[in-house]
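Bench notes, afternoon.
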Amino acid sequence: MGRPSWDEYFMQIARLVSQRSTCLRRQVGAVIVKDKKILSTGYNGAPTGLKHCQQVGCIREQQGVPSGQRHELCRGLHGEQNAIIQAALYGVSIKGSFLYSTHLPCSLCAKMLINAKVQEIFYSDGYADDLSLEMLDEAKIPLRKITI
């Protein structure tokens, strides 16, 4: 087993971050990187101080909401959202950064990443949200799938 490339390294960290997730449907980890340095991380789960879905159940499951639809019907924040928020809380600019995420960002996260000026997105697993792909393409943000 050789030394991992930088992309493999950061994706492995995103997978580790995802293990903190409290989502009952999908565990997502995100790492924001610039100049080969980690600026911020995030995983999906309820806002700080609120009960987790593991404690109260999943609204989306209860209502039969398919993956990639009705994002507003969820107690949790997405991993990408939490990574952006953590950077903002500590005054860290993510302009010109790279996102490593276990999953392709949804359209809500894509909009945030576009406005935050993230320059490239690396992901491992897909996500059922065609609007995300359309917007990221229009914004000319490259997507690179990494399988590890």
